[in-house]
Amino acid sequence: MADEEALLKQFAAQFAHGPNDADDTDAAAAAQHANNPKNQAATNAEQSSTSFDTQQFLNGLDAIFDRHAAATEAGPYLEQAMVDAENAGDEAGLLTVLNETMGFYRSQGRHKDNQWIVQRALELAARMGLTTGTSEAWATTLINCATAMRAAKQYDQAEDLYHQAQDVCRHSLAPTDRRLAALHNNLSMLYSETNRPDKAELELREALRIIEASSVNPDEDIDVASSHTNLALTLLTEHKLEGAHWHAAKALDIYKTGHLEHSAHYASALAGYAQVCFAEKRYADAVAGYRHALDVIEECYGKDTDYWRITEDNLRQAESQAQAAGIDIVPNDTTDATTASAQEATNAGTSRQNSTDAPVMPTALVSDSAATATSVVGISGLKLARAFWTQVGKPMIAAKYPQYVARIAVGLVGHGSECYGFDDAYSQDHDFGPRFCLWLSDEDYTAIGEQLQTDYDALPRDFSIDAQGHAVFSTNTSAIATDHGTPSPATPRAQGANRRDGVFRIGDFFESITGYRTAPAQTSPHEWLMLDEATLAAATNGEVFADPTGQFSKTRQGFKDMPDDVRLALISKRLGMIAQAGQYNLPRSLKRGDGAAAWLSIHEFVNAASSLVFLINVPMVAGYLPYYKWQFAALRKLSKSMFALLPDVAEQLESVMRLSSAACYGGAGFGEGGKGSAPAIDQINGIVEHIAAEIVKELQREHLTTSTETFLEWQRPYIEDHIASDDPVLKSL
């Protein structure tokens, strides 16, 4: 499939960044996997009368995009292909379809629908055994899932998936493979949307370098053009107008030289150039660019898309500014002026004035937050840690350990509220301050570990960050600073052998949390079952700021990759506890008037249901349920996610807990005219049964059960039928 043909359907990615999204290669990668003789389903499909033809599917999808019929035909086509691939038992073919569907749904702004596709793709990849390898199919699936998460503004999950993809790509792709450029491009978008423009710019320049190096003719290459547009928009957020204008104009020049004006991606270049013109107060040129972009969007995708709506809104803002400035705008102005103006700017080179008083940009085409984000860095532990590393720790490493710069992993992971991102002003009264972890291989730790720890300890600790994210610290090295420089006392539990920051061997770090230097083998379910979820949450939380070799991230990721058989076994256990504690013992204890037993039954029911929500959402995507203090903070955060499964359970569980006092200890009629515990008991029992019914619906949707029984103990055999291993530790008695 030619790059240009494949790219036509990928304009969806995130508007201007389209051609560098990984989706244009996902189909090919998945198709390649389908031809792998190790894939039993694909091999059998060749001999089956109901086989699924992956290449025929891709050709049909290409044809839909070629005739610009995606708006009405692509959705039904993809949905039918999913059914066909599943009926044929072709897992590789189904993965190809899911990858294509993610890209299309994203293009249509169907983020809610996409949640099922992302979840299904990750589960399918795990079932196929891809998650433990370095296949291209796994890499591209990770990138697609991450990009879907990013488009839905689920940034933490997206960044984690992108970093997983990076680790896979290091081993599976050549240095000039354009999918590496796609990954750098997608990461740049995430950094832009999370107010890290400096990192976004670096990722985009690397993407552009890879694409130009792999191009036969960079002056006529659509991917090169899109990379210039992406870079222009990022430079615009950094107020680097001269560079932004040059790259935006260069993109249009490539489209003209290569006669690529009929490509769907041409709209992104036009709109990107228009946005630069708007920032330069050249409103007439901005209006012309936006109008031309709308024409291309309407032709290729119709008006009922996010891209049309965002661009139309930008056009209205440009027209309004032009009117306010007294500039006459001709209705339906021709678009030749845009191309001509761009060509003039390209020829002019760097002579364009770098304006420093550009107005606030309109809503960004690439991302809403890229245009509106501020540079304010809040005093959360993770942000403080990142700033402390960037502005204090990193320069020290570069000066004293230059030969190890490309070997040291840095971040903040492990114990402490800030590692979960749930810290607040109350968290700053102890063990709070600028800190980070430095993770070394065994060999490097032997060489420099002790000295590096000494140098880390000597870093100035009276450090905070101002509204611009800049370091503010004194020479006092003994105090741990809060946002106002007030010392925060360090408790014994965070010192000595239990220290939470500083220099570690990678294996020692994970062993101190889990008891394991690396995650248990996928074939050792008994070891996985010995690790409780709170322990796994502590080993996989936080953020990794740098990991040049990928060794730390790979080890960390191993603990997130819970074997699916183990996950199913735990789901079965949680169903059993929900049934026993919530559906059986709770109402019986309340009838007996045993408030203490009822209270403890509620406790067990709430814990089991909370755990089940995370397990259903898959640890690879959602992480693990943390320890009790942050259990509901994590549950609320997950439930607000666009892709969350069982999103209403958190609120329902909190209602149960609010009612528990009256239900367990309200008596027959407390207070004058009181109704006693009866109303609260009725409400709790109703909520418990409602949660059980919602769980059954979700199990059915995931094809884990065919039963409608809402007493969840009876659902356990259906779940355990999907456990592939014969190990008795995974099965209930």
Automatic annotation (TrEMBL):
Keywords: Repeat, TPR repeat. Residues 27-42 have a biased composition (Low complexity). Residues 337-357 have a biased composition (Polar residues). Residues 528-630 form the DUF4037 domain. Signal peptide: none annotated. It comes from the Bacteria. Residues 17-51, 337-358 are annotated as: Disordered. This is Tetratricopeptide repeat protein.
